[in-house]
Design a protein that fits this description.
The structure is a single chain. By secondary structure, the chain is mainly beta. The chain is built from no helices and twelve strands. The protein has a four-stranded antiparallel sheet, with no helix packed on it. It has a four-stranded antiparallel sheet with strand order 7-8-9-12, with no helix packed on it. It is globular, with a radius of gyration of 14 Å. The chain starts with a strand and ends with a strand.
């Protein structure tokens, strides 16, 4: 199902808070979600294993997420991940730590602010793109 579902206590039905649009690499999709981190304010971070990226959903009712780390193909470069699994985000949401399973490493990223990027594929609103920097 490639999604993250939030369940309230004693609920009979959950609510999709990330992905849920089939397997894929679009900003509205996940490919084998693994690790999960939910902040105190409800921001959802998901390790998207098959797409070699970490995704962020600011609000559970958003229909697409933002790439905050990886997303540049599988590899061992500083901007790449290779099947990321476990993740941790600091309380201030400025540090992201990723267990990069097939990269055989743990990476620590400083999360930068988001910038608007014009998407040439259609006339919809611009995508948001994040920049992360690996810390040594």
């Amino acid at each position: 199902n490639h999604r993250v579902v939030m369940w309230k206590r004693n609920a009979k039905e959950g609510r999709v808070v990330a992905g849920g649009n089939g397997f894929g690499s679009g900003l509205h999709q996940l490919g084998c979600p693994g690790g999960l981190h939910v902040t105190a304010n409800g921001t959802v971070y998901v390790s998207d294993e098959a797409n070699n990226r970490i995704m962020k959903w600011n609000h559970p009712n958003e229909n697409r997420g933002q790439v905050v780390a990886g997303g540049h193909g599988a590899g061992d470069g500083t901007a790449q991940l290779y099947h990321p699994l476990g993740i941790w985000v600091s309380d201030e949401e400025d540090i992201l730590v990723v267990a990069d399973s097939l990269g055989y490493r743990v990476q620590k990223f400083r999360l930068s602010s988001f910038t608007e990027v014009d998407d040439d594929d259609d006339d919809s609103s611009p995508e948001q793109e994040a920049t992360s920097h690996m810390l040594q």
